[in-house]
Amino acid sequence: MRIGVLTGGGDCPGLNAVIRAVVRKGVTAYGHEFVGFRDGWKGPLEGLTKPLGIAEVRGILPRGGTILGSSRTNPFKIEGGVEKIKANLAEQGVDALVAIGGEDTLGVATKLHDLGVNVVGVPKTIDNDLNGTDYTFGFDTAVNIAMEAIDRLHTTAESHHRTLVVEVMGRHAGWIALHAGLAGGANVILLPERQFDVEQVATYVTKRFQVEYAPIVVVAEGAQPLDGQMVLHNQELDSFGHVRLGGIGQWLAEQLEEKTGKEARTVVLGHIQRGGTPTAFDRVLSTRFGLQAIDAVHEGDFGKMVALKGTDVVRIPLIEGTGELKTVPIERYEEAEVFFGN
Amino acid sequence: MRIGVLTGGGDCPGLNAVIRAVVRKGVTAYGHEFVGFRDGWKGPLEGLTKPLGIAEVRGILPRGGTILGSSRTNPFKIEGGVEKIKANLAEQGVDALVAIGGEDTLGVATKLHDLGVNVVGVPKTIDNDLNGTDYTFGFDTAVNIAMEAIDRLHTTAESHHRTLVVEVMGRHAGWIALHAGLAGGANVILLPERQFDVEQVATYVTKRFQVEYAPIVVVAEGAQPLDGQMVLHNQELDSFGHVRLGGIGQWLAEQLEEKTGKEARTVVLGHIQRGGTPTAFDRVLSTRFGLQAIDAVHEGDFGKMVALKGTDVVRIPLIEGTGELKTVPIERYEEAEVFFGN
Amino acid sequence: MRIGVLTGGGDCPGLNAVIRAVVRKGVTAYGHEFVGFRDGWKGPLEGLTKPLGIAEVRGILPRGGTILGSSRTNPFKIEGGVEKIKANLAEQGVDALVAIGGEDTLGVATKLHDLGVNVVGVPKTIDNDLNGTDYTFGFDTAVNIAMEAIDRLHTTAESHHRTLVVEVMGRHAGWIALHAGLAGGANVILLPERQFDVEQVATYVTKRFQVEYAPIVVVAEGAQPLDGQMVLHNQELDSFGHVRLGGIGQWLAEQLEEKTGKEARTVVLGHIQRGGTPTAFDRVLSTRFGLQAIDAVHEGDFGKMVALKGTDVVRIPLIEGTGELKTVPIERYEEAEVFFGN
Amino acid sequence: MRIGVLTGGGDCPGLNAVIRAVVRKGVTAYGHEFVGFRDGWKGPLEGLTKPLGIAEVRGILPRGGTILGSSRTNPFKIEGGVEKIKANLAEQGVDALVAIGGEDTLGVATKLHDLGVNVVGVPKTIDNDLNGTDYTFGFDTAVNIAMEAIDRLHTTAESHHRTLVVEVMGRHAGWIALHAGLAGGANVILLPERQFDVEQVATYVTKRFQVEYAPIVVVAEGAQPLDGQMVLHNQELDSFGHVRLGGIGQWLAEQLEEKTGKEARTVVLGHIQRGGTPTAFDRVLSTRFGLQAIDAVHEGDFGKMVALKGTDVVRIPLIEGTGELKTVPIERYEEAEVFFGN
């Protein structure tokens, strides 16, 4: 068989480990050939390829990012996109595709499979918000990076009697905030899944100062205050109507400073959460995902994605993984609340 | 309620996080009081206690080790041990115990529960070999430490065209070797669960040198060669009949040097695998274990231990967790074998 | 002797290591007593003290921040400040002070010494911009944190064919940018010491994309473009006339995106550069600074600060260390330029 | 010019950073050409080369080891070695050599320069024991790795009330032990420069247990007890007369266990101290060494080696760097002694 591999969406530690496992097992155990498509679905759409064999995957296990490049190109939004993909796959002699990506990338994979393309999906989202799998790779790395930052910030907060607001990734799901906040001993954790009361947050912060320790507030970038609490003046909106001055973290720090009378500072972790070498958890998970994906391709079990269930890596229908966002359930949030304000 | 807490067996990153979660939730949510027992079962046996409240658990989340100390004392091997424990618990006014430990510590907990002591167990083993739970805390930290060491050793191996044998923890179960080896891109992984053929290992090593890369061999301390391969001269045994010169790692390096004609060196990671600050995974897991344990105590649900099943922390009968060792199943080992020798 | 210790200014990894060394040697070698003053000069000003002995300094060597707290209080800006300090020192029976801090803190120390207070200074600035010492502690830690962030960002930049602008600390001196940029393999490094031509930076960035690698631009927070290049609309200034929308990093990313036609993103490292456990270099340097400072106090050699010269820790007059800012000399910048744009 | 580059002796973090800086500046600033010689002096001796240009040095800055390979081959110990080297250099059209290595490698460089070969040396020793330079690269990385190990071991030592003996590199000079011991808060530090009294060490250890903390003893592999304290039975020597059972660390742990009545364990850090990605200090130092070395070559300033003096990278005669070992001066050791036993 000749098999194409592509990676789509935001980069994520573990992508290279998946590619390596797919190719290593595909070549050595099954004798398949591979071709890399560059930059997500843009690769098969425009016929952009890259050699992909044992030599190309040497040494990439510990490396972040993706040797294939990535993009957010969606062939279904391009005139004749599907036909071009089919033509390019045919020209390259590609019998099957391994598509590694998040909801968008796997959504395309699902539709292409319905249209007769042989696809196996590997779920990827640093936010851990894909249904059908217990965890996605990259998440553990992001949580560790955020936790290490929080560890560092504790000493600064306490030396200066300041509140430190740490804004982490998570537009729609608060997994990174929840886990990094628990692991880092945050005083409050705020998630997109639940609007927060800025007065309550200020109360927690004040309580923490009373025991002579300074608070760390972890806030997901998509968290929102209760309706009406964020009153914007005109000049705080940009021409698209977005809040101008930084994100929710900065807004919250300003509010807390005002309400508690204690200095507050914001740190926005941003892109450092998604780059660099994966943790052991993510390397093992992405390697096992890759091995299971190439097994599925080899067996002709298409239209599936690989998934973690407990300690097992299994296959589930592609459609199951991409239908709905996996958000933080209320009981997991309440479990954490016992630490708030103490 | 007045609740005693103890930690037994080898230390493990995450012990302090469990203690903190138990106390924080016990005090703030339920209003319980706590007393720390020192040095495992030795504490209740000899009446060695330590104050344990909100103040004592501040700042211990990221710290390795255990603020309560540990030991391997077994009260059932001591004349009148159980009676002494019961007397000391009564004297301290202790209504229930949270026992954090491995097979031995929880084995004692199980028997004491049968004898009427109110106990809830929290499983702890860095080796990840306790039944009934998907993972134990400390394991992820150990695997990451071993992986980082392997990452470092790759460059040395290649610069000097040497084989590097890395001996990791695991007397009876090879989980650390398997995960660290997968995560570190080991050339061969050797586990206690399966005797290895030193000739086969030498073949893998030789094959690796042929592609111009130097091999890393990861070996669990309890791994053994095929019967008859380790022929010992008298002077290689100490007075107890144990192998003198280092462990299996050193023996293997000598064998590989002889059989492949390439220099080989050994690194024994030893105690650095079990100390220091826990990873995010271990901090979250141990915190959730602690929260579930105090809930069980509060509800009077004794004779249980907490356990991870998928993404849920649940309770199972103590007896289920400690009966049998959880070793690496053959299919997990075969999954990894595709990387050997390449 | 009874000796007061205080830490002033921004926190910095190594402060606790200095305190520990001062107290450990002062007590065990010389038999002195200590009292901690809280929150910089605010402590002696308001008589805020803290016990400080062997017990208090146990275990603080690896901890970031300062157990004494810090502030930017300047007693010379407060009516009767100096008299209050003298009165409080007398009341506490303090014979001498060890003042650990940057230009402001040591400036106060210098003036107090002229007014008859027995002071020895320990230089502290994460920016490494104090004259009279080769390095200050905290700087090496900050550079390593920034370098690790840059390491992570390389893979993201390349996977997405994006420019990544990393804004690091350094308002007036670009030492962190220079060292982190060199260590992280930055494509361009921009310092406060030298205005940059945004067109030239865009040329470097474009050149880098041509060799199929994505650029990392490291910019000190105090770096400025050539006069006239940053044309500000009114609404981009806040009420103090400062640029509103983020710092120089965000401005630069927007400019580069426009000029190069490639996506650009900014990461502002902020407070994570100054918190957390010190590197070995900083632990050794701050320990040696502390030992030399207590020797100076013991010998009555006041009005001095400790300093690193080559591999020696020596004493210099306080006035020499605080007179002028140590900026990056042009030849060090030119040394780095060979890497720009390649 | 056509310039050869080689790396000799034990590998060391920063070697690749030197190679990269030499080639990057040599090509882009001066237009020189390069050829890599493989495996130290073995390369020019046997004519083993490797292409070396901008493409080959991309991405190697953060990588440990050496892309050129290394060996301990000494051409002066080989019949006709010098003539072979001269012939191979002529055949390759090589005008000058950059030799990166320790005492042995630079010793050969010195002699070859006397025989008319154009050589510039770059000093390399992880042990920091080369004269003529304040620091060598790789040392800071090794010290940080050892310090992190010690940080981890503290918690284990205290949880189990055990002594932990950490054996670090340093056969003839104790720089790594001294700096890692100071940075890690060791209870005792033992160096090759000064024989130790095992009774005194036991006293320190005992004292530490009395304050309820467990001791870490850091011992350089080349440290030795006072004459007569290590009484060996015949069977403890191997056929070369070397001590068989592990190194000095294990011997010391056994002695301390016996003399103090407290369990003692040994960790031998071994090869993990020399592999992996360099710290920022080492990346900056090795980059600056490389830049200065290529400048020297370009200017025809042969027979020199580069060196760090304070914050400057300078050139000194090769002979000055390699004559004598730079050991730890007694006053640096005494500076550290204040922490022993406390």
From TrEMBL, chains A, B, C, D:
Span of domain Phosphofructokinase: 2-297
Xref: Pfam families: PFK
EC number: 2.7.1.90
Catalytic reactions on record: beta-D-fructose 6-phosphate + diphosphate = beta-D-fructose 1,6-bisphosphate + phosphate + H(+)
Site (Important for catalytic activity): 124
Annotated positions for site Important for catalytic activity and substrate specificity: 104
Listed InterPro entries: ATP_PFK, ATP_PFK_prok-type, Phosphofructokinase_CS, Phosphofructokinase_dom, Phosphofructokinase_III, PKF_sf
BP GO annotations: canonical glycolysis; fructose 1,6-bisphosphate metabolic process; fructose 6-phosphate metabolic process
Subcellular location: Cytoplasm
Molecular function, one GO term: fructose-6-phosphate binding
Binding site for diphosphate: 10
Cofactor: Mg(2+)
Binding site for Mg(2+): 103
Active site, per annotation: 127 (proton acceptor)
Entry annotated with the keyword Cytoplasm: yes
Enzyme superclass (EC): transferase
A cellular component annotation (GO) from this entry: 6-phosphofructokinase complex
Control of this protein's activity: Non-allosteric.
UniProt function note: Catalyzes the phosphorylation of D-fructose 6-phosphate, the first committing step of glycolysis. Uses inorganic phosphate (PPi) as phosphoryl donor instead of ATP like common ATP-dependent phosphofructokinases (ATP-PFKs), which renders the reaction reversible, and can thus function both in glycolysis and gluconeogenesis. Consistently, PPi-PFK can replace the enzymes of both the forward (ATP-PFK) and reverse (fructose-bisphosphatase (FBPase)) reactions.
HAMAP family, per database record: Phosphofructokinase_III
Subunit structure: Homodimer or homotetramer.
Record's protein name: Pyrophosphate--fructose 6-phosphate 1-phosphotransferase
Organism: Actinoplanes campanulatus
